[in-house]
What we know:
By secondary structure, this protein is an alpha/beta fold. The protein has helices at residues 12-26, 36-45, 62-71, 89-98, 113-121; strands at residues 4-8, 29-33, 50-54, 80-84, 102-105. One of its GO terms (biological process) is phosphorelay signal transduction system.
Amino acid sequence: MTKRILIVDDDQDIRDVAQVAFEKFARWETITAASGAEGLEKAKMNALDAIVLDVSMPDMDGFSVFEKLQADPLTERIPVVLLTAKVLASDRQRFAQMGVAGVITKPFNPLTVWTEVAVLLGWDDDHKS
């Protein structure tokens, strides 16, 4: 079954690279959003298997978006993988306490980012069967 992923990042290049990687290598269907508000709207309107969410965005950062996703019965069960340029030890602790599915640091390798997401979400078994 094809996975459907929402990519939320204010950087057009990051969205484009992730979208191409997920569609070309993993054969996942992707939807993109350029802001936290747009991401929340699209998360409510689409049946999603996961969300890849940038932490550092203007207006509404990834933490705020994640909190809003968790507070909404329509979106609370969607696994979220955070994208971030810098991960401090204290951040890793915060991410673990938040209940995110995992963290991928930027810059990521476009050839392998889909496998990182699949492993974080436990989807890597899908390719073995």
